[in-house]
Amino acid sequence: MDANEPEVERRDDVMASNRLQVDSSSGAPAVPLVIGAKESAPAPPTEVVFELLDLNVYYGETLAVRGVNLKIHKNVITAMIGPSGCGKSTIVRTLNRMNDSVSGFRVSGEVNYHGHSIYASGVDPVEVRRRIGMVFQRPNPFPKSIYDNIAWAPRILGLKRDLDARVEQALRGAALWDEVKDRLRSSALGLSGGQQQRLCIARAIAIEPEVLLLDEPASALDPISTASIEDLMQDLKQTYTIVIVTHNMQQAARVAERTAFFSLDDAGDGKRAGVLVEYDETATLFTRPADERTRGYVTGRFG
Amino acid sequence: MAAIGGRHPLGTSAALHRRRRIDRLMRGSATAAAILAVAILGIMIGTVVVNGASELSIAFLIKDPPGGSLVGVAGGGIANAIVGSALLVVVATAIALPVGVLIAVYLTEFSTPRTARPIRMALDLLNGLPTIVTGIFVFGLLVASHGQSGIAASVALAVVILPLITRTTQEILLLVPKELRDAAHALGVSRWRTIAGVVLPGALGGILTGVVLAVARAAGETAPLLLTDSIFSARTSINVFGAAIPNIPIDIFSYSESPFPAEHAKAWGAALVLIAMILLGNLTARAMLSRQRRRLGWMPTSQR
Ligand SMILES: Nc1ncnc2c1ncn2[C@@H]1O[C@H](COP(=O)(O)OP(=O)(O)OP(=O)(O)O)[C@@H](O)[C@H]1O
Ligand SMILES: [Mg+2]
């Protein structure tokens, strides 16, 4: 990376950031994000991969997430933080239609992927998930060999050519190759938790998705495994657009260029739903948050 | 409650005494009932072993009955019936297994509570249906028009074991962790491919257990055979679509009806063979099931 570049790249223009600050339901005025924006010349914004417009998510009658407006940029690591139950998992699972199987799940508003709604009729959720990969909180390798864990989906999806090379590439991509290259045929369940999670990442990138959604990928791992997964994300972001949900604010600060802070908010009717409070450069969000609630959350943990 | 709670434990009231007596009585009768169940099984197996052991020999297992029909002589064996029973059971399982697994897959993976309830109820009723009724049904369906045959017997046995296979398969499918299905879905793999590639292979051991239990059940079923395949013969037949096929339950029935003591002994011998086969099957199935449960119960996270 160019040494003259600012430490954190500014990917968004002020206009777009302003709009993201509007909490549409409460009608609060937009908080202009002038503090960070003046310090450095904005880097050219990258392409928008996801655009959420007034997204509401319901589980049955319960509104879980209300009025989220959010843009996710290509080849940028975007972190989502916020207290438990504020809807972070709900939102990432909404991005690849993983929630379709939950009975009562419903969205209103728009989830656009490269300008096309992924909830439009005629969209095949299986195809959506094929392009938008996901790694879960708990490592969930298949009870198959290491090789088959990775080769299974490509085989089914018709990516059969050079399967061995694809498996090797995926394992290298997930920084696991050297550890497992001599035991590809042994069970994946024999790997350590950290290795299993990297295997799950390898499995996800083996089908060459465009986006990787990581829902608390390191929360079940020890610090060393966590560090290796964080390093890995820096490599992966060259190729993939990454969204990571985390409870660990240091982790968000370490890996993400942009961070979205969600909170539970009362709509006035006594029912609490998750809302997007603030979305900005990670450095700005942690050091000079524009919203009181963000400040409270961020400083509450860091003292 | 409060009064009793506040009392010294030695100062029990009359009411508490009575409740304790009732408690002891209930516990006593429940224990007795449980012991009775074990005792009945023990006495039954014991009787069969005592009476059948003398008949049991290698020759009994590998030789056909002497002569063409019931002649009351000692010697010979029940080899043709063992072959026949095995054949009937294999064909019955081949019919019931795919259907049962598909029903279980539907119930666990695709059904809504509204569609699942009637199906589950139908299976429960089918499971409780007297097997002689199943026999009559297949008699009307196949035997009345085409005569007794191995296939008629196998169809009847398939109906008997279908709920059993469905139930065990369903139980094991429910044990396959949701995380594995999520993992497959997140890879852009369709639902059906997920089931075929991840869910069913994960449940294979459990399904096999169900099959073993079903085989044991089918091997001993007699009532449907009386109506669909009640032949006693020294002949060995392996054509399920041809005439009726000799089998162990009907042999036991025929020998025990005979006036000759030598054949009563054979009935005991055949009963012993049948019971041994069934017990063995049951024990194997149970061992397999608990192994499978342990394997699936283990979640793929080793760290905290
Ligand atoms: N499958 C579901 N059915 C019904 N309600 C759900 C479901 N999943 C989540 N919810 C509800 O939606 C809200 C948001 O949950 P979600 O799991 O998205 O929160 P989260 O921010 O990921 O929390 P955590 O940090 O604890 O993982 C919660 O109130 C939760 O009870
Ligand atoms: Mg969550």
If you had to describe this structure to a student in words, what would you say it looks like?
The complex is a heterodimer of chains A (303) and B (304). By secondary structure, chain A is an alpha/beta fold. Chain A has helices spanning 14-20, 34-37, 88-95, 125-131, 146-156, 163-173, 177-180, 193-205, 223-236, 249-255, 282-287, 292-302, and strands at residues 48-59, 62-73, 77-81, 105-113, 116-117, 132-135, 211-215, 241-245, 258-266, 272-281. Chain A has one domain (17-298): Rossmann fold (3-Layer(aba) Sandwich), CATH 3.40.50.300. Chain A is built from twelve helices and ten strands. In chain A, the strands form two sheets. In chain A, strands 6-7-8-3-9-10 form a six-stranded mixed β-sheet, sandwiched between helices. In chain A, helix 5 packs parallel to helix 8. Chain B has 304 residues and is an all-alpha fold. Chain B has a single domain (58-303), classed as MetI-like (MetI-like fold). Chain B contains twelve helices and no strands. In chain B, helix 8 runs antiparallel to helix 9, helix 9 runs antiparallel to helix 12 (261-297) and helix 11 (248-257) packs antiparallel against helix 12 (261-297). The model of chain B is unreliable at 298-304 (pLDDT under 50). The interface between A and B is medium-sized, with 38 and 26 residues. Magnesium ion binds next to helix 3 of chain A.
Descriptive tags:
heterodimer, A: six-stranded mixed β-sheet, B: 304 residues, mainly alpha, 0% strand, globular, disordered C terminus, binds adenosine-5'-triphosphate
Give a quick rundown of the structure.
The complex is a heterodimer of chains A (303) and B (304). Chain A is α/β, with parallel strands linked by helices and 303 residues long.
